[in-house]
Design a protein that fits this description.
This protein has about 90 residues and is an all-beta fold. It contains no helices and six strands. The protein has a four-stranded antiparallel beta sheet with strand order 1-2-5-4, with no helix packed on it.
Length: about 90
């Protein structure tokens, strides 16, 4: 099917399919952090978190934030995203 990315707001993204490929309990998303914000234990870098959720059989929501849950863009610069749907 055709996949379309949308940005709903700061740190809030949705991948939508024109079909229904994202089977409940059989969909897995793998995301690496690319070279977005950098980890730092005390200084100039930002700590960040990324989460995903298959909200329906045709959408996957991805959220990026700082570790204090403040929505944040830029966390996935040059990141890889792989979606697997198992039988």
């Amino acid at each position: 099917g055709t996949l379309t990315w949308s940005r709903l707001g700061i740190g809030n993204y949705v991948l939508t399919s024109n079909g229904t490929p994202f089977t409940a309990n059989k969909t897995q998303v793998f995301i690496n952090n690319g070279n977005g914000n950098t980890f730092s234990s005390g200084g100039s870098g930002s700590l960040y978190a990324t989460r995903w959720e298959s909200t329906t059989t045709d959408t996957i929501a991805i959220g990026t934030a700082t570790t204090d849950a403040s929505p944040q863009d830029g966390n996935l610069t040059n990141a890889s995203i792989e979606i697997r749907v198992y039988n």
